[in-house]
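mind reviewing this fold:
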Amino acid sequence: RLRTAQVMTRLCYNRRWSSHRVGHQKPSLLTPSFSAPSRSIFIQTQDTPNPNSLKFIPGRTVLESGTMDFSAPSTAFCSPLARQLFRIDGVKAVFFGPDFITITKADVNVEWKLLRPDIYATIMDFFSSGLPVLTDEAPRTDTAASDDDDEVVAMIKELLDTRIRPTVQEDGGDIIFKGFEDGIVKLKLQGSCTSCPSSIITLKSGIENMLQFYIPEVDGVEQVNDS
């Protein structure tokens, strides 16, 4: 059993929790072929380490498993919800976790109080519609072990899944394993981590130290930006 590494420390920051009860007060942004019952959804928001990203918690399952990252409207072909969120002026990126949605805004000068109402309404209308969050053709990315993994890669993936990703997801983001070559672990940051000012600190002071602590074969960690 893996023991907790003392070198892995989470960045501390003040979190402000807010909540918004959204009623069915405006026409649905979707046009489903059936009539959805009118009801309210209690949506909470949580700050992330990235001031340009905000975590929305609708109080229900968003994804059954894994995470999904949509960096631009063109990548949202497999998600009706992501497409609706991208229609909101000022939304730059959308990220889905198991029970949360992280929105990244395009303009740092635009205040969240101007974007929140449309985001609240879009999320509420979508879940009231009964439509699936993802369609069948949705590509999935995760760090699940496979039969083709060697011992070192399997250990890296286990650490990511059990020790690192849950912590990062609490902050509205995720980290995806992209490869291991010549002692370097290649990772892709998603969600609030993508443009977070503290992402380099997270990689080097947190993730790299933990992987090196447990796996001597790891020489370092490198961030990759490919899809």
Remarks:
- Strands lie at 17-22, 41-47, 53-57, 68-70, 91-96, 101-105, 173-181, 184-191, 220-223.
- The chain has two domains: 44-129, 151-223.
- Residues 1-38 have pLDDT under 50 and may be disordered.
